[in-house]
Amino acid sequence: MTNDLTQKAQPFKQPSTEKKTFAVLFLFLAVILMVMPFFVTFNDILTRLVMKVELYRVIQERVVPMEVKMVSVVTGLLGIRSGVVEGYLALDKNGEIFLVEIAWNCVGWQSFIVLILSFFTGLFGRYTRFSKFQVILAGFFGTFLMNIFRGVLVAIFAYFFGQFPAIIFHD
């Protein structure tokens, strides 16, 4: 009987690299799908709060025009003819001009709120003032640049694929 067991038992085979990669990606996707409702709910609460106290007007009047100009500059550096027309990003594709709106809720103000909240928890400890200053500076500049990069990516999608694919990519 022991001979039958030893003959039937096969050595344990390590999963292939492809299976490991798929497992890691699947786990990553599962975690994202589990956490996403919390972020969406948090974002919705923040948006309602900003609208209630009418802080969105400051964002729309001050932040949006600056971000539209910066996105225009970066898309221009990438070889896409662009400009600003009455607060909209204007993209020129072979003489055809179409406008991309960057609304107050799309400039990334929520990421700055999350950044500030993370400062309260992440910088709570025995760090030098200079190291805290460096983290805060890097955090603000990094978040700022990521928000500009997001706007540029949406503009690139709009330029090459049209408005509907850009909206899907944005959302």
Query: What is the global morphology?
Result: extended
- Uncertain runs are none
Assembly type: single chain
Strand order of the largest sheet: 1-2-3
The overall pLDDT average reads 86
Largest sheet: 3 strands, antiparallel
Q: Short summary of the structure?
A:
By secondary structure, this protein is mainly alpha-helical.
Describe it.
- The chain is mainly alpha-helical and 171 residues long.
- It has helices at 2-8, 17-52, 56-77, 109-122, 129-161, 163-170; strands spanning 81-85, 88-93, 96-100.
- A three-stranded antiparallel β-sheet has the order 1-2-3, covered by helices on one side.
- A hairpin with a 2-residue loop joins strand 1 (81-85) and strand 2.
- The model has no long low-confidence stretch (mean pLDDT 86).
Question: Which properties best describe this structure?
Answer:
mainly alpha; 6 helices
Can you lay out the helices and strands and say which pair or pack?
Layout: H1 2-8, H2 17-52, H3 56-77, E1 81-85, E2 88-93, E3 96-100, H4 109-122, H5 129-161, H6 163-170
Antiparallel strand pairs: 1-2, 2-3
Helix pairs in contact: 3-5, 4-5, 5-6
